[in-house]
Structure formats: structure tokens, C-alpha cells
Design brief:
heterotrimer, A: about 260 residues, mainly alpha, two-stranded antiparallel ribbon, 13 helices, about 70% helix, globular, B: about 270 residues, 12 helices, membrane (chain A)
């Protein structure tokens, strides 16, 4: 599976390299779009010293962790939620006759490394945040764990979004509400949102395990909802549970696939 | 085909009607877009409420005002095409079909504008109403300060948005890479329209600049007219000024494109 | 090699159940060359897609090379080759040679066998001149030859082709036909193709499956098909007769096609 992934990703990278100018512009574009979110955080903190009980450094840490996970998930698996385009163009048929998983073929479809720019940027913000926070090693080990769990959670969301498109071929934007919406949600401390939403994000759609719960653990701060501090350590379990659901949904989607006219 | 005076008068309204009808066939896509716009509206609203709780009255808005602002600007995404697109022109330039459009005895710019107004009218309802209504249900939004002026401001905003997107589309004639241009347009439009944050809280000279640029006419200004945080007369004049400037620039570019395509043969 | 028993597929279009294919039963033995005919929307493509694992049947049973296509999709992919006349399985922006190399790696064909196969195909299909050309710049005839090569690199026991001669000029058509005939007679590869071109049928196939309204309307030899309408000069007239006769009963609409291009804009 990893071999097939590398093989196809490399093929698409070579194909994209044929269009050098486009490649350079897209890389710059991805970098600037990521920069907009940072600009918004900068403007917010130019107007206030704390947002829902969190200071700029803590928000940088939370933003950086979630955005890094999202950017890497998007780079590696983001194409999965473009499946309705493949369905319409009939190219999913071609993927289904190859001896490789259609999910891997989807994930690598039109793979271009230019989206790495956003990950670099998020990583930088995370690094600055961490450097200023002075977190003891006894809790800092959780940072890489939460980023990896976050990648799995977002990859599962992209897959769920893709699976949804087998049902809603004409309404693909619904999927962006979950994927890109999920990324935007985690850019700010979840204490910004209504407690009912945060409970939903903890117990139903486990987005709180991307950066909020593990982030609280790393920061050594109590959960406003009163959950114990070890809740954050459950991130890998939450990620695997969501991945399992996504895998089932994807299989169901492939079985329901209707193909196009001819 | 020679267009008489009477034909020209009925041609453009008819094109607008076709634009409306064509987009109405994609109602599922419009509903999906409205759903996504609403979800993002809810997320943005919470972040801004947190900011306004820390700084009440910031930028001249109260909490109810900023919630209203959020959902109104989300409602603008569809009709104003804040993420770009909405025109067939880039596609037609890429395939070379634009040569056929340019030799028609009708203005290409007016042709596209008519279709775009039809599109915007449909999306104003299909993608504008759901976020506004849901925002009202979930958070409560304030009533319009000057309803007639608000509608005029939305209409002018669509014209400014068209003027900008038409220029970007036509630039494809000279810059071969339309994807790069699209990304550039997306970045400046989302940021400087006031979609991400009210431009009133952008600090210092950066804020003054952002408020003077044409993109503010696409979301910030209509929302301000609705809320009464901007005087209608001044706001509408500002939008009309940018509409005229961008349309004039577009007309100049159309002429240049016609010379390039017709004389050099593409 | 191919066994279909009571095979059926329904689609739900606007809450109405449409039978694209129903109760299809046939066998294709190893080494046969079979054409699948039928008017537009008759269910040919749906059948082909169920045989290749793209669509999951809603009723009946199907086995290709001893495997259930929708359950053992990847295993089946290694045993069969599939060619779509209307779309390519190659990578648009890569030179044909690189596309084929990628197919080799995907199918895990060893290097020596790959070289042999490719040399053979270069010979038979005259690929030499355009192996270095990006697929997007190939003519339709060249692209089709590239696609056939890609489908045969792993030496499949069955080759399934969906309208392989569509849009080809007379010369390309003749080349493709000559190649398929050789493949079938010399290597013994089982070939199943769908077509609207009755020239394909007359020149290539011993056996014809005629699908209409999602049902098997005729299964027999080309001569047998001709005998259904004695006095008709050409096979074309015979088939046109058959299609026309069945037009009195309502036709199943084609499988649903989602809206082409929606207006863009996200988030």
C-alpha cells in the first residue's frame, strides 16, 4: 500500500513538474493562503490580549498543532474528497480495474508537493509557540503524538467526505463543511464555542482530540467542561476509532458506486 | 446577425434570465454551498463573539451587530463569488472559443455582466437566505437599518465583483496561467472583502487601505449599510465609483483582447 | 472463463427503480472471442462494469476467471485486462513509456517479462515511434494502441474491451482488429468486446451476445444472427431490424449521469 502510494505520488509529481510556472505559483499561493489565517490571528490579538481565556502564545501552539496535522493530511490524502470529480469524469472506473486500492489511487491523484508550504508555515507557528511556552519534557512528548493523531483524524474526515459524495454527487460542498470546517474549528481554543458544541466534538465527531484535549494536557490547563486531564491522552484511540468508521463508510460507498452513463 | 436598437434592449435582460435559469438547475450544489457557508458562519460567529466579549464595542459594532455582520458576509459568498469563478470566460479563452464571442455584434462585457447578474440574483436567494435565516435562528440578528439601500448596495457589490472577476478572467489572454491568477484573486478577495474579519478592526494604515480598496465593496460595505454603521449615500457612491473604474478598465481590456485575437489570430 | 447467472443491476433514479440489466445468463469459455451488441442504453456497459468489478450487481451471480469481481476486485485485476474506448487508463501528462512502466510496477510484472512483452507489442502495434510522447499529445489511434498495450502487460487470461474501435480511422481500426485476432488465436486469450461497429463483429467474432432492455436478446453465432432475418443483405440490416422490432417496448433509460460542471466556489 505504501509502495503503491509512493509510486503513484511520484508519477503525479513528475507530471506536475512539466508545468513549472504553474507549480511555482501554486506553491506561493498555498503559502499565502495559509498566511491569511495567521494574519487573522494577528489582527485579533492586535485588538485583545486574550481570547476565551487563552493568550497569543497558547493560541499559536493550538493553531500550529492543528494546522500542521491538517496541512499534512491534506497534502497526503486531501484528494480523496475530490472523488465526485472522478465520478463525473469516469476516471474512478479506471481506478477500479487496477490491482491497487482505489483509496490509495484517489489519495495520490494529482498529488503535488506544493501543499507542503502550508505545513512548513504551520510547523513554524507551532515551533514559535512551543519555544515561548517552556513546556516540561514530561508533557512535551505528547506534541508529536497529537500531531500524528490529528493527521489520522483529518485523513478520516477527508475519507468520510469522499464516501459521502457517493451519495451526494451534486452536493460535494457539504463535505468541505466537515473537512475544511474541521480545520477552521481547531484554529482557536474550543472554549470559544458553546459547551454543547464542544461536547459533540468530544463524544460524537472527535475533533476535540486533534489539538484541544491533548493541547490542554500539554499546557497543563484544566478542561473547562471538567473532563479529567488524561482525556487528552486518548487522542490516538479517538483517531483510530474515527479511521475505522471512515474505512467502513468508504467501503460502503464503493459498493454503492453507480458509475456514469457509458 | 445585426442587432437593431430594440433587439439590444431585450437581449441583455434575456441573457440575465438565462443566467438565472441555468444556475437554478444546479439547486443541489447551491444548497450544499449554502450549508457550508452556514457552518462556517457559525464557527466565525463564535470566534468573533469571544473577541467582542473581550472588547465590547470594537470597531463600532456591538455583539449582535458583529454576529449579523458574520452571517451577512457569509451570505455574500455565493452572489459575489468571493472565492472566484462564476464566469465561463476563462474556460472559453483557454479553448479559444472567445474569438467567437469577440466578433459578436454585442459587447462581450455587457453580455457577461447580464449573465452574471442573473446568476447573482439566483444565488442571492439560494445561498444568501439560508445562512442569514439560520444565523437569525441560532444567534438572533438585528433588523436591516435601511432595507432599500441594502438591496442597492448588494446589487452594486455584484457589479464591482463582476468588474473584478471579468478583469481577472480576461487577463488570461495575456498571462497563460489562469490558476495562479485565480489563487491571487481568491487571496485578495477573501481577505480584503471583510469576509474573514470586519475591516473596521484592521489596525492603523493597513485598515484604512483595506477599507479603500474595491474588494470592501463586495461584503464589508453591504453589511455596513444593512447595520447602519455606514451612511448609505456615501457607501453607495463608493461602490458606484469602484464599479465604474473596474468596468472601464474591463472595457479597455476587451478592446485590447479583440485586437489581439482578431488581428493576430489568437 | 466468464459465468453469469441471473445477473441483474438496478439503479434508483428519482425514487424509481430502473432495471439496467436483468436476469442475464451466459457462459464464455476460455479462448472464445465474443462481441456484445445492443442499442445505446441497452445495458452493455453496465454488464461490462459488473464483469470487471466496477459495479456491484444487485442480483444474480457472476464469476470471471473463477473470481467474484466485486468481492475479489484486486485479485481479478491481475487476471484480466480492460480497455475503455472512450477514456484512457494512462497518465495524461507522462510519456507513454513512463505510463507503461508505472503499469508494470502496479501490476508487479517482472522486468524481463515486461521487456519481452513490450518488444512484442512494439512490433505488432508499431508503438516505437511514440513511446516518448506524452499521452495527451497522442492521436486517438496511437492512444488506443497504448491502452491495449497497458492492458496486456501482465498477460491477462481475459481481455475486456468497451467500444475499442470508436472514433478510429480505417487504418487504425484494421490494425487493432488484426492485433486482437492474433491475440485470440495465437495466445488463446479470451476476448469480450462491446461495439456499435458491425465490421468488428463480422471480422472478429464467432459468437454474438445481443443485449436489449437489459436482457439477453440473442446468443449465438454470427451466421445464426443472420438467419434470424433471411433475405437481408448485410448484417447491419439484420441488427437494425432487431433493434427496430424491440423499439415498440419502452427502453430502459441509461444509467444516471450526474450533472456535468457545476458552478464553482467552496467553503
Amino acid at each position: 500500500m505504501i509502495r503503491t502510494y509512493a509510486l503513484l505520488a511520484w508519477a503525479w509529481t513528475r507530471a506536475a513538474a512539466q508545468y513549472r510556472v504553474s507549480f511555482a505559483l501554486m506553491t506561493a499561493g498555498a503559502f499565502v493562503i495559509g498566511g491569511l489565517d495567521i494574519a487573522v490571528i494577528w489582527i485579533i490579538f492586535a485588538n485583545t490580549g486574550s481570547l476565551a481565556g487563552f493568550g497569543l502564545t497558547e493560541v499559536m501552539f493550538l493553531y500550529g498543532a492543528s494546522e500542521l496535522a491538517f496541512a499534512l493530511a491534506d497534502l497526503l490524502f486531501g484528494s480523496v474528497d475530490r472523488i465526485s470529480q472522478q465520478i463525473r469524469a469516469g476516471t474512478l472506473d479506471v481506478m477500479l480495474i487496477r490491482p491497487a486500492s482505489p483509496w490509495v489511487q484517489m489519495a495520490t491523484d494529482r498529488f503535488t508537493p506544493h501543499r507542503i508550504g502550508r505545513a512548513v508555515q504551520a510547523g513554524t507557528v507551532l515551533g514559535i509557540g512551543l519555544a515561548r511556552l517552556d513546556i516540561p519534557l514530561t508533557r512535551a512528548w505528547m506534541v508529536p503524538v497529537m500531531v500524528v493523531s490529528g493527521i489520522v483524524i483529518f485523513a478520516a474526515l477527508f475519507t468520510l467526505g469522499g464516501a459521502l459524495q457517493f451519495l451526494l454527487t451534486d452536493a460535494t460542498e457539504v463535505a468541505s463543511a466537515f473537512t475544511y470546517g474541521g480545520a477552521m474549528l481547531n484554529q482557536y481554543p474550543l472554549s470559544v464555542y458553546d459547551a454543547r458544541i464542544v461536547r459533540g466534538l468530544t463524544f460524537v465527531l472527535p475533533l476535540a482530540f486533534v489539538n484541544w484535549q491533548p493541547g490542554l494536557y500539554v499546557l497543563g490547563r484544566p478542561d473547562p467542561l471538567g473532563l479529567p486531564s488524561w482525556t487528552g491522552l486518548l487522542s490516538p484511540a479517538a483517531a483510530l476509532a474515527l479511521a475505522a468508521v471512515a474505512a467502513l463508510a468508504w467501503r460502503a460507498g464503493i459498493r454503492r458506486y453507480r458509475s456514469t452513463g457509458s | 446577425m445585426i442587432l437593431g436598437h430594440g433587439a439590444a434592449v431585450s437581449l441583455y435582460p434575456r441573457l440575465a434570465w438565462y443566467g438565472f435559469r441555468r444556475h437554478a438547475t444546479y439547486w443541489a450544489a447551491a444548497l450544499a454551498g449554502a450549508f457550508t457557508n452556514t457552518v462556517f458562519g457559525v464557527l466565525r460567529a463564535y470566534v468573533l463573539i469571544a473577541l467582542w466579549q473581550a472588547r465590547p464595542g470594537l470597531g463600532g459594532y456591538d455583539v449582535a451587530g458583529v454576529v449579523t455582520y458574520t452571517f451577512l458576509t457569509q451570505a455574500c459568498i455565493g452572489p459575489m463569488q468571493l472565492f472566484g469563478g462564476g464566469l465561463d470566460l476563462p474556460q472559453r479563452i483557454r479553448t479559444g472559443d472567445v474569438a467567437l464571442d469577440l466578433v459578436r455584434p454585442a459587447s462581450l462585457q455587457l453580455w457577461c455582466l447580464s449573465e452574471d447578474l442573473g446568476r447573482a440574483a439566483y444565488l442571492f436567494v439560494a445561498r444568501g437566505a439560508p445562512p442569514t435565516l439560520l444565523g437569525a435562528l441560532l444567534f438572533g440578528i438585528v433588523a436591516p437599518h435601511a432595507p432599500a439601500a441594502f438591496l442597492a448596495s448588494v446589487a452594486l457589490g455584484v457589479v464591482v465583483s463582476f468588474g473584478w472577476r471579468y478583469i481577472v478572467a480576461l487577463a488570461t489572454c495575456w498571462v497563460m496561467d489562469d490558476r495562479g491568477l485565480a489563487v491571487f484573486s481568491l487571496v485578495v478577495t477573501t481577505f480584503f472583502s471583510g469576509l474573514m474579519l470586519p475591516l473596521a478592526i484592521f489596525p492603523g494604515w493597513f485598515g484604512s487601505l483595506a477599507r479603500a480598496l474595491p474588494w470592501s465593496a463586495m461584503a464589508q460595505v453591504p453589511a455596513d449599510v444593512y447595520l447602519g454603521t455606514a451612511g448609505p449615500a456615501r457607501a453607495l457612491a463608493f461602490q458606484a465609483m469602484w464599479a465604474a473604474v473596474l468596468l472601464a478598465l474591463g472595457a479597455l481590456m476587451t478592446g485590447a483582447a479583440r485586437r489581439k485575437v482578431v488581428i493576430q489570430g489568437g | 472463463m466468464i459465468e453469469a447467472d441471473g445477473l441483474g443491476r438496478t439503479f434508483t433514479v428519482r425514487r424509481r427503480v430502473v432495471h439496467a440489466v436483468r436476469d442475464l445468463t451466459f457462459r464464455v469459455a476460455a479462448g472464445e472471442f465474443v462481441a456484445c451488441l445492443g442499442p445505446n442504453g441497452a445495458g452493455k456497459s453496465t454488464t461490462i462494469k459488473m464483469l470487471t468489478g466496477i459495479l456491484t450487481p444487485t442480483s444474480g451471480r457472476v464469476r470471471v476467471a473463477g473470481l467474484d469481481p466485486s468481492r475479489r476486485r484486486t485479485a481479478l485485476a491481475r487476471r484480466i485486462g480492460v480497455v475503455f474506448g472512450q477514456r484512457t487508463t494512462l497518465w495524461w501528462d507522462l510519456p507513454l513509456r513512463d505510463s507503461l512502466e508505472l503499469v508494470r510496477l502496479l501490476y508487479k510484472v517482472d522486468r524481463k517479462m515486461f521487456r519481452e512483452r513490450l518488444d512484442e507489442m512494439c512490433d505488432l502495434l508499431d508503438l516505437g515511434g511514440f513511446l516518448g510522447t506524452p499521452v495527451r499529445q497522442l492521436s486517438l489511434g496511437q492512444r488506443m494502441r497504448g491502452d491495449i498495450t497497458a492492458a496486456l502487460l501482465h498477460d491477462p487470461a481475459v481481455l475486456v474491451l468497451d467500444e475499442p474501435t470508436i472514433g478510429l480511422d480505417v487504418v487504425s481500426k484494421a490494425e487493432v482488429r488484426a492485433f486482437l485476432r492474433r491475440l485470440n488465436s495465437e495466445r488463446g486469450t479470451t476476448v469480450l468486446l462491446t461495439t456499435h461497429d458491425l465490421g468488428d463483429v463480422e471480422r472478429l467474432c464467432r459468437r454474438v451476445l445481443l443485449i436489449d432492455h437489459g436482457r439477453l436478446a440473442f446468443d449465438g453465432t454470427v451466421e445464426g444472427l443472420r438467419a434470424t432475418a433471411p433475405g437481408r443483405a448485410s448484417i447491419e440490416d439484420v441488427v437494425a431490424d432487431l433493434y427496430l422490432r424491440s423499439r415498440t417496448t419502452p427502453r430502459t433509460p441509461p444509467a444516471p449521469r450526474p450533472a456535468a460542471d457545476e458552478p464553482s466556489g467552496t467553503a
